[in-house]
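Fill in residues.
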């Protein structure tokens, strides 16, 4: 039995939409229910949870819907799409976590909160968008859209950048093209105080989904949405500090972080200090699109005196007790 802790849980995409699933509402509800059984066990063990989650597949599907209906319905920008996914995923989590808690006799209010995250409009990420988002396109499909001329286009398939209808695209492994969007660093969570107050009131908050709706804060304090996405693991690390949580628990589809991942020399990394993982990150040990941001988020939490644990949903309790997963903490 581990001592009760205040834990920010970051749920990976797989906990909401299983890999290879079509993604119907019933499929997502069933997958979310399984994740919530695991989360309810943590609450029943006495931990205080803040739940955050990814939204990549869901926002990708909305972009497909928008493209299909663009002549009839105006498209929404990325900050609004993030809010929509916080609504749909947050709703499923609040319903299914509520059900799972009730079944365990550990009933608590679960509240999904639309959450804004402040970014710097001068963040270098805006000059070089590199976060792939949404459906894959062939070169022919993009050429067709350039010829139809709906919006500004520049560059092309052989140039360094290809802008089509005002959006930047990049060729990905396999030869198809994907939209790339800026992923600036999260600086503040606008609703951070409200989340802390919900915790004090015994509520389980579901917040900062998809890394939060990115907003810029002007000098007079007003907020305005920006066209970007924020990495959910980075926002989870920030949230861990803002609500003074002891632990960031990153739940993904592998049991632990590996060194030499995918090679013959692959071996589990059971524990490390932030300095050790910063060195590994600098050596390029972890890919930017998957394990890199998780390890960086873990290092950030550990550098501020907290503990970060990276594991899979079914090993969560064991990992919190140090019997599984990867733990990053000051040595
Ligand atoms: P999530 O949806 O949970 O954010 P990601 O796909 O972004 O998940 O990241 C998890 C994936 O990272 C794993 O499925 C695994 O394939 C990959 N991965 C890359 N490098 C490593 C590593 N060094 N150790 C473990 N997994 C790794
Ligand atoms: Mg990810």
């Amino acid at each position: 039995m581990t001592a009760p802790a205040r834990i920010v849980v970051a749920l990976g995409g797989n906990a909401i939409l299983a890999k290879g699933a079509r993604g119907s509402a019933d499929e997502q509800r069933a997958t979310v229910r399984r994740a919530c059984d695991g989360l309810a066990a943590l609450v029943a063990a006495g931990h205080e949870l803040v739940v955050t989650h990814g939204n990549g597949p869901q926002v990708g599907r909305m972009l497909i819907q928008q493209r299909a209906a663009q002549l009839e319905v105006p498209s929404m920008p990325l900050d609004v799409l993030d809010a929509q996914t916080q609504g749909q995923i947050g709703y499923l989590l609040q319903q299914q976590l509520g059900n799972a808690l009730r079944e365990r006799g550990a009933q608590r209010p679960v509240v999904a909160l639309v959450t804004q995250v402040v970014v710097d409009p001068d963040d270098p990420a805006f000059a070089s968008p590199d976060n792939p988002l949404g459906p894959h396109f062939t070169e022919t499909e993009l050429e067709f859209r350039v010829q139809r001329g709906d919006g500004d286009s520049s560059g092309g398939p052989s140039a360094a950048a290809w802008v089509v209808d005002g959006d930047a695209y990049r060729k990905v492994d396999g030869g198809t093209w994907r939209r790339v969007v800026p992923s600036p660093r999260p600086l503040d969570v606008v609703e951070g105080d409200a989340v802390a107050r919900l915790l004090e009131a015994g509520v389980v908050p579901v917040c900062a989904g998809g890394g939060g709706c990115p907003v810029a804060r002007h000098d007079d304090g007003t907020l305005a949405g920006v066209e970007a996405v924020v990495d959910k693991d980075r926002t989870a690390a920030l949230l861990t500090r803002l609500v003074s949580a002891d632990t960031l628990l990153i739940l993904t589809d592998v049991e632990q972080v590996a060194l030499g991942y995918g090679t013959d020399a692959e071996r589990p990394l059971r524990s490390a200090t932030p300095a050790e993982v910063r060195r590994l990150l600098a050596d390029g040990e972890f890919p930017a699109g998957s394990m890199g941001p998780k390890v960086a988020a873990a290092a950030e939490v550990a550098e501020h005196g907290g503990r970060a644990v990276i594991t899979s949903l079914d090993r969560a309790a064991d990992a919190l007790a140090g019997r599984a997963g990867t733990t990053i903490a000051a040595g």
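The first strand starts at residue 6 and ends at 11.
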